């Protein structure tokens, strides 16, 4: 029977904690949102497997690697040092990058849902460290710190959860089979690693998403007549 005192047990527990955090079974509703992708289908911007792969590559390179991933690293460090000012600063910065009501609502609702779950599990941090309206990424970083997940693995886990979410959206809203989704996964896996490496090297002045197409799609999704995902 494995115990915390045995070699490798701590890292194994950290890995399991990360797997729990990125699992679609985590009851926070993360897979209810399409992040503009459903609108891209409706508008005809993404029609094929190749289109979807190109879309995901662009969001990863110009979005996650410039925003969510480097902010996760900064927030995990801030939680580790109990720097309430930095936590609040980056939480506010993230909220300011959400260019549509839908994207902002997703971040704050998922953050609130994760706070509720952590409260029920007895895993919340000191109340003085939690910023007003903590976003999903802010609380994700807290759990990763609490679980002692290495920073690089935190980013890899978040990027993987994002990819799974987007492919789940595509399988539901686009004629995309599961084998096609796995082909895209095989293509994207090394790109996720590269995006994490880039994110960890970014300076503060180089942060911020450059995704006008996604923002427009998200804005149009808010009034889309028929939709499967939340707005």
TrEMBL record:
Subunit-level organization: UreD, UreF and UreG form a complex that acts as a GTP-hydrolysis-dependent molecular chaperone, activating the urease apoprotein by helping to assemble the nickel containing metallocenter of UreC. The UreE protein probably delivers the nickel.
**What HAMAP family does its record include?**
UreF
For the keyword Glycosyltransferase, the answer is no
GO cellular component terms, alphabetically, are: cytoplasm
Give the protein's function. Answer: Required for maturation of urease via the functional incorporation of the urease nickel metallocenter.
Q: May I ask which residue range the UniProt record assigns to the signal sequence?
A: none
Pfam families per the UniProt record, alphabetical: UreF (PF01730)
**This protein is called what?**
Urease accessory protein UreF
Question: A Gene Ontology MF term for this entry?
Answer: nickel cation binding
Q: Which family does it belong to?
A: Belongs to the UreF family.
Lineage: superkingdom: Bacteria
Question: Which InterPro entries does this entry report, sorted A to Z?
Answer: UreF, UreF_sf
Keywords assigned by UniProt, alphabetized? Chaperone, Cytoplasm, Nickel insertion
Provide the organism lineage as a comma list.
Bacteria, Pseudomonadati, Pseudomonadota, Gammaproteobacteria, Pseudomonadales
Q: Where in the cell is it found?
A: Cytoplasm
